[in-house]
Structure formats: structure tokens, C-alpha cells
Amino acid sequence: MDRDEIRVAVLRIEGTNCEDETVKAFREFGVFCESVHLKQFYSDMIRDKEQRTFTDYNCLVFPGGFSAGDYVRAGAIFSARLKSVLQNDLEDFIKQGYPILGICNGFQVLVELGALPGFDEDRPIAEKPEMVLGINDSNRFECRPSLLKHENRGKCIFTRKLEKDVVMFPVAHAEGKVIFPKGKEKEYIDGLVQNDQIVFRYVDTKGSYAGYPWNPNGSTYNIAGICNITGNVLGLMPHPERAFWYPNTDGRAVIESALDYLGRI
Amino acid sequence: MLYKRADTPFELYEINVLDANDEDLVKISQELGLALNIEEMKKIKEHFASKGRNPYDIELQSIAQAWSEHCCYKSSKCYLKQLLFDVDAEYVISAIKEDAGVVEFDDEYAYVVAFESHNHPSAIEPYGGAATGIGGILRDILCMGAQPVALIDPLFFGRPDSEDIPKGTKHPLYLLSGVVSGIRDYGNRVGIPTVAGMLFFHDGYLTNCIVNVGCVGIARKDRIIRSKAGGAGDLFILAGGATGRDGIHGVTFASAELEEESEEKSRSAVQLGNPIIKEPLIHACLEVVEKGLLTGMKDLGGGGLSCVIGEMSLAAGCGAEVWLEKVPLKEEGMAPWEIWISESQERMMLTVKPKDVDEVLYIFQKWDVPAVVVGRVTDDRILRIYYHNYKIYEMDIDFVVSAVEYCRPYVIKHAEVVDAVSKPADIEKTLLEMLSHYNVASREWIIRQYDHEVRASTVVKPLQGRINREGHGDAAVIRPANSWKGIAVTADVNPWMTSMDPYWGTASAFDEMVRNLVAVNSVPHSFADCLNFGNPEKQERMGEFVESVKALGWMARGFGLPCVSGNVSFYNETPHMSVPPTPTLMGIGIVENVRDAITADFKRKGSGIVLVGETSKEFGGSLYCAVTGMKSTVVPETSPEKLSEYTKAMLEAFREFKVYSCHDVAEGGLAVAIAEMCVASGMGCSIDVEGEAYITLFSESNTRWIMEVREVEEVVRFFTKKGLKASHIGYTGGKSFDVEGVLSVAVEELDEAWRDGLTRFTGW
After folding, report:
1. Among A1, B39, B178, B513, which residue's Cβ finds the most Cβ atoms within 10 Å?
2. Which domain CATH number covers A143?
3. What are phi and psi of B184, to 5 degrees?
4. Cα–Cα distance for residue pair B473/B465, rounded to 1 Å
5. How many domains in chain B?
6. Partner-chain contact B188 A239, CB within 8 Å
7. CATH number for B17
């Protein structure tokens, strides 16, 4: 499809707060991108001209922030609202191979929703969450730069145009520690590696897997970002849209890759 | 009988001021929590005598809000007008008069600045107090129609190692951790980056911590909204959170000294914040602004509805009619006066033309933010309130809002001059102690808890240098619009200096603010002040205030920097002590191209180090004295003309030559400044100093910078030719900080001392 046919929605509810910069980043590449309140997909009070459906778009983004305050558990309320009214639409969207990106709180939403790790091609949204983004080992919110080794072998449609081995995207979160079900960690990691679902892992300046502060949250296997089995859903804790303008522009490749992929379908 | 229940189906009292004698009047003020003095009470009695009736409780409470120090600046206005508010610049769109200052940014945009204190609430309930401080300052920016883009938070506490804590006071570390958590949880949730601030510990803040919050916003010039009602016939729409009993008497509480029992008595004066109402409130307000649907907007802060409707109407030369039962409440059974003065958070007042009301209400509903019509603007200058069809309030707005003003008497204290500073016993040990001093050491523990990158526009971050082991910068730089033009922001004051000499201490704070802006290659453009002082009824405190404002006016005028917004906080005093004079300054600079901004970490081996500026023996309020225990009252002096000349030369040098890094010389003098540049980069340097080494290394003379440059001889010549002082003092490189024949310390050792200085108290 041509660039001017691409339509991107950045989804928000109260408390998502990285939508402005995310929209700006997509628009930088000349595509249509708007932030859309979740209510616009289902609420009766919304006027006709502001009503939307997922079929209006070919790329969805769950931005960073603190959706609904994250008071229950990060991403829990946003995903519960999605699940209750839009689960089928979202599954269709994923099955059709359209890209979905979840950044920080958006990653938390996708995990709570069961869309990641997303092992089952036929049921892209699992019945219940299969992993958790838990509280950082430091037990507090931390904003810092993070170095990420790109380990995807080609499945993830968001990193195909990424040329560097190691990129810098900043992190800013209190709940970003990847945790798999107890006792099944190895099984999950092996599965992710085999399926080529690992996308980014935290490393130090030498490019080696390292502990705190390089792994800012204590994440299992130093995981910073993973994609689903079909490679069209990516969730990551670090913020590529914050490494976009100056001085660091590493994050551009993530959006460029997704648009390039859309250009080929 | 002083109080008589009115014949209404709800709680309303008539207050018998007409028959009250002086003693009764004082009693009324105390019993109703009005915090008005006898003269003010008499003025009220006189007014109602002329009307031939007694006031209702809601009317008296309303006057008390409007006449509180917090709302009307009655003790400070007269000196501020005389001494500070006469600096103008053609690019200032609106200064002082509104909730925030508005200054031209470029052809299309203006930046908006506000700066406030949240001291009393934070001393009682640090988490909620600081969080609502952030909430309040965001509303000040928002009500001008601007998108907030950066938060700044200077904090002041008692020493972290304090042991004897007076009854009713909380430990400084408890307060620090509560305040930082409050700013973190609120600021991060609303998605506005906290990019700058400062932290200072001093005994004088033990019983009164100081929490200042600043905010910068950006607005399209043609979309700026004024804090006044549009015109007669417009409707008042109250948007945001519901109104409850939290925050009743917040302003009158902030306008008196804290007492031992304040903890129990005043908790209800602290409001509760909710960032997840605020975040959509910001979006909804900006959407109605963008669509041009408003005629006026103002936030509800101190004094609640009472102040906002009064001030908006007065500013428009109008009156108002309010239907109080329309206000959504958090709880049942609130008396009308409580609804009227409650300071519940997350509320905005809009005025809208009747034809636009439906559209505005739809937009708020879309964002799930409650909004209701609560009144209308009238063409007389009278405010009337109805509650379930009973008229319970009718007063001339001019009488209520125009209030009272005092030019309070003051005395200026002159201290005896002492200058007993000499060489340190062990210079290397002294340097390490300075770096690990709690007023200098790394603030990483705080900075990392704040999201300083959200909005993806923070170009020069508060932490600069090698990844995950950065150092402090002089100012943060953000890129608020789509162009490469940026805004630099910094906050400064050194209470060691201001407590010793309010005049030169304040002048030094101004100098430091300008230095920090210049160091990142920004042109100083405007500033805001938050003046935190003790009880103004005490002549010595008032003297400190006047000296400080005098110095500020002198520097601002001479340098040509307009003061565009500010706040005065008095009564930061308890029976134990008063805070040191704390005129916190927030400086705003313009960076023509953010890609030319300069950071403070050394960049490359073998480049030349240049010290710009003049050093003399000035140790009053210095870090050197704090660490060695030596005495000096010689607070560094400065002059606006000299500061201006150096500023111009520095900015020109940045254009002419390759400058890799730049840092201002402040606490701890040259030695600490260079050590910080080493720590941020992990790179050492070796320098040579002239004259008495400890003076050159540790004196805190103003108007000085260190630059790391490529063409060192040319740079020195450039300054010398202008009649300014600059000297080539050494080169970067190596693993240690060497001063020829004086000291040599490994960068690792400096780093350890500096990184550990605060976290040894807070934990990491």
C-alpha cells in the first residue's frame, strides 16, 4: 500500500500520556496518524464524525503513560476495557497481519491483554496473561538511558530496517521486569528464542548482558522487548519515540520498519 | 449573640458584626478561622454598617480568602511594585497580572511561566502537599491556554543528619522522601517532564521545609486565554473534580505561622490531588481552547470558587450570579460557605458564550471530565450567590477583591564583617569533603525518579555525560515546538549566602541563574521568582524581604531581564525559627538551535581549559566555610553591568570558537566545578593556578565559567581584547584531577565521594 493510504491510530484513555510525541513521530514519515480515545470505538455519546472502528486503520499503537493511573496494576484497566468491548476486532486486526506496537505502558497493556508473548497464531489474544511486567528490582520508578541489543533474526516487522546491533532508547517506568510463570522460565525463554520472538535485550557499553543499572528493572534474560509469533505485535519497555529527534535518533528505525512493511502489503 | 442561624433549610449563619466590640471581632476572626486582624475586621464591620445589615458566614469567609496574604500579597505588593516590577522588555506579552507570565517565543508561539510555593501543606503532609503543588502549577499554565512542557522543583529541608527534632516537626529525610514521591507520582502520571530543580539542606528549614514548583508551558499566541470573564451574559462552567471538604482554609493556613499543633489542626487544609482527573482535564481544556470556544479561563487554587469568580469578574469589570447548588460535591451536608471556599483540586473555571455551551460540555463529557454551568456574568459589579433559590450572598466585588495593602515597617540588620579564612589543613581531603557534602553531591537519586524525558522534547537532560554515570548539568534544554528553537531552564538560590546577607545573597542568586543559562548557550530571556520568607509582621523579616527585593530589582534592571511571574510566601516561621531568606529564582533562556546547546562534561582529551571571570577572596556563605568550619561574612558581590558584558562575550565566544563543554563556577568554586566536569565524563585534567591556591580553587566569586575549548589562545585573546578576564589554566586528559604542586586526586575517588554524598542518607 502507498504511504498516503497508511492510517495509524495511537490509542488512549485517561492517563496515557505519550500520545503526542508518538503521533508526531509517525507523522514525521508523512503518514496519517491520530490519537484516538478508546471511547471513540464503542461509546454512544460520541458524535458520528468522531466515531471510529479498527478497520479505519492499518496500524495501532498503545503509547506510554499511566493508563487509568495504573493503580490496580500497570495496564490492567486499559486491557480490561479493550477485552470487554473490542477483543474480536483486535484479534481480527492481528490475524490480518497489521502491525501493533506497545511502548512501555502499551507493552504492559498488551501483556495484560494476553496479546504478548502471543504464542498461538490462531488465537492471537490468550485467555489469560502468560507473563507479567513486575515491579522493578529497585522498587521504584526510574528514568534512565538503556542500551539494547537487537537480537531478532527477521521475524519482527518493527526492526527489519534497524542496522545497528546496539541502540539506545531511554526507559522510564516502575513496572518493567519481565517475569514468566514460576518453574516454566526456561520453557518460555526457549520458546521465544526458537520462534524468533526476542527482539531487544539490555546490555552494557561493551554489548554484554549485564545487571543493574544496565538491566534497569531486573528483567528475566535481560528482555526489553518481544514480539508475537507472527512478528506483527511488538511490545517493549524502552521508548523509541524518545530517541527520535536529537541527539539520538536510534528509535526512527522502529517506525520506519513498520511503515516499510505496510508499504509491501 | 454573635452567631444567628438563618431561617433556611440548610446551614447558614448570620454573623452579628454590627453589635460586636473589638474583642468580639477578634473572637469571630479566630472562631471562624478567618486569620484577619482587628483593623481588617473593623473595616468589614464598617462596610456592613453602611449596608445596614449583618454578613452571612459565607460572605465573611469569602472576604477572609480574598484578603489573605496568599491571595492578595498585602504585605509584599507595595515593595514589589516599587522595586521589582519596572523592568520591561518588548517581547513580554503579559507579566505578573495573570496566573502566569506570557512571553514571546517565536512568531507563532509564546512560552508561559509560573512559579509557586507549596510550603505549609508540604510540612504537614509532604506527599499530598507536594503533589498538589504540581497540580496547582499545571493549572496556572493551563488556564492561559498553554500546554505544560516542563516542571521545575527547588526543595529546601533541614539538615539530613538533624537529630533534635522539635515536637510537631517531621524529620527532614521523611519530608524529602515524601515530597519527592509526591512530585514523582503526580508529575509522572500527568506526563509532564520534571527537568530541573535544586535541593538545599540548612538548619533554618528544620521546622518549615520549602517546596517550590515551577512550570513552563507553550501556547499559540493567538490562542492565549485571559484569566478574566468574557463579558455580561457569558456563562461560568466549572470543570474537573468534585468539591469536597479537603483544602478548606488552605490560604488562611498558609498566611500564618505554623504551630506545634498544626499537624492535628490543619490536615484538612491540605488538599488531595488526583493526576488521573488532571490528565484528561488538560486535554479537554486544550481542546476547547484550540477550537476557540472560551472567553476566559482561570484555575481554582487558593480560596476556591470564592477567589476565582471574584477575580475573573473584577478583571472584566463585571459582576456575577452563582447558583451554588449546581456545584458537584464529593460529600453531602456541606454548608454553602464550605462549598464556596473549598480548595479541592483539579478544577477549572471557564467562561463561555451561551451558544458555545453545548459544544464545550460535549468535549468535557468525551473526556469523562465533569463540567457544569454554575453561574453567569452580569453587567453590574456585584456578586450574588443563590443556594436552592435563597440569596445568601450579595457584595460589591471591588470591596471584596481589591482588599488591603500594607507597606509594613522594617529594619535592616547589619552584621559585623568577619574574614577569618585561611589555608586548609589537607587540601585533597577538603575537596573530597566538599564533593560529598549533601548540598553538592549527586542528585541522581531524585532526578531518576522523575520522568524527565516524557514528551520527547528534553534535549539537554538534567544528567549529562557518560551513560548511567552522568553528572549534573547547569540548565535543562527543551524543544517545545516543531522548530529547533529551545528553552533553557534553571532554578537557583544559595541560602547560606542569603541568610548571611540578603542583598548580596540575592544578587548572587541572580548571577548564578544567568551563569547557568549562559553555560548551556542560551540567551537569558526572563525569570520568575518565588520569595519565601518568615513572618512579615516582624520588622527584621520584613527587612530581609526588602533587601532581597531591592537586590533583585537592581540586578534585573541593570541586566535587562524582565520578571514575568512570581509568588511571595510569608510566615515560613514557627516559634522555633524562621527560614533563611529564600528568594528562589527560575531563569528562562532561549536557545536559537538546540543542536548548539553545550553540556558540562569534558568531551575530549587534550583540549584547553579556560577560566573566564575574576576571582577574589569571597568566602561568605561558601561551601569551603561549611566544610572547614572557618568564618567569613564576605558574601560574593556582583554587578549587573559586568554580568551583562561577560554574558555577551560568552555567547559570542560560543559562536566564534569550538567550545566542547562549559560549566558555571558556584558552590565550592573552581575546584568543585572542574571536579564535576571530570566526574560527568570520567576524564581527568591538569591545571595550574595563580596566587594563593585555596583562594583560586575555592572562593565563590560570581560571574565565572569554565570552558573546554579547541583554540585556547584565541579564546583567551578574545576576552582580553574586550577588557574581560580569561585565563588558560590547563588541559583535559588522564585519570586524575591534578593541580600542579597542590593536589592530585583520581577521578574515581572524586566520583565515589560525589555519588555517595546524598544516598548515604537516603539509601539507593
Report:
1. B513
2. 3.40.50.880
3. -60, -55
4. 9
5. 1
6. no
7. 1.10.8.750
The pLDDT score that the predictor gives to residue B741 is 95
pLDDT tens profile A182-221? 999 999 999 999 999 999 999 999 999 999 999 999 999 9
Residues of B in contact with A141 (CB under 8 A): 184, 188, 449, 451
Residues of the domain holding A14: 3-263
Residue B290 domain flag: no
φ and ψ at residue B419, rounded to 5 degrees: -145, 75
A36, burial (CB in 10 Å: exposed 0-12, middle 13-18, buried 19+)? buried
Q: Is B283 a catalytic residue?
A: no
Q: Which of A167-176, B338-347, B562-571 has the highest mean pLDDT?
A: A167-176
Say whether B206 sits in a helix, a strand or coil: coil
Q: Collect all residues of chain A within an 8 Å Cβ-Cβ radius of residue B279.
A: 14-15, 17
The verdict on a CB contact (< 8 Å) between B184 and A141 is yes
Rounded distance between C-alpha atoms, residue A18 and residue B452, angstroms = 13
* Closest chain B CA to residue A105: B189
Where are the strands (E) in B621-752, listed by range?
631-632, 659-664, 685-687, 705-709, 726-732, 736-739, 743-746
Q: For A226-235, what is each residue's pLDDT tens digit?
A: 999 999 999 9
B763 at interface of A, judged by CB pairs closer than 8 A = no
Closest approach of B594 to chain A, Cα-based (Å): 9
For residue B386, tell me if it sits in a domain.
Answer: no
pLDDT at B32 over 70: yes
pLDDT at res. B415:
81
Q: Would the CA dihedral through B561, B566, B568, B569 be positive or negative?
A: negative
- Residue B437 annotated in active site: no
Statement: residue A53 has pLDDT above 70: yes
Selection from A150, A129, A60 nearest residue A97 by Cα: A60
In Å, the largest CA–CA distance within chain A is: 54
Exactly one of A104, A112, A156, A227 is catalytic; which is it? A104
User: In terms of DSSP H, where are the helices of B101-235?
Assistant: 119-124, 126-142, 172-190
At B523-537, the pLDDT tens digits run: 999 999 999 999 999
Residues in a beta bridge with A250: none
pLDDT grade for B354, boundaries at 50, 70 and 90 = very high
CA-nearest residue of chain B to A43? B366
Q: What's residue A77's pLDDT?
A: 93
Size (chain B), residues = 764
Let me know if residue B41 belongs to a domain: yes
Give residue B46's domain range.
3-69
Q: Do B457 and A21 touch (CB under 8 A)?
A: yes
Please check the confidence at residue A83 and state whether its pLDDT lies above 90.
yes
Q: At what angle do helices B172-190 and B275-290 cross, to 10 degrees?
A: 40
Q: Which of residues 420-459 of B touch A (CB under 8 A)?
A: 447-457, 459
Which of the residues A10, A11, A12, A14 would you substitute to probe the B interface, choosing the one with the greatest number of B C-beta atoms within 10 Å?
Answer: A14
Report the SS3 class of residue B421. coil
Q: Does the beta-carbon distance from A172 to B368 stay under 8 Å?
A: no
What's the rounded mean pLDDT across residues B660-671? 98
* pLDDT over threshold 90, residue B666: yes
pLDDT band at B339 (very low <50, low <70, confident <90, very high): very high
Q: With a cut of 70, say whether residue B264 has pLDDT above it.
A: no
In a domain, residue B678? The reply is no
Read off the DSSP letter of residue B232: T
pLDDT at residue B257 in the model: 73
Instruction: Please give the tally of structural domains in chain A.
Output: 1
Picking from B286, B358, B448 by the largest number of A CB atoms within 10 A of its own CB, the best residue to mutate is B448
Contact B238, B372 (CB under 8 A): yes
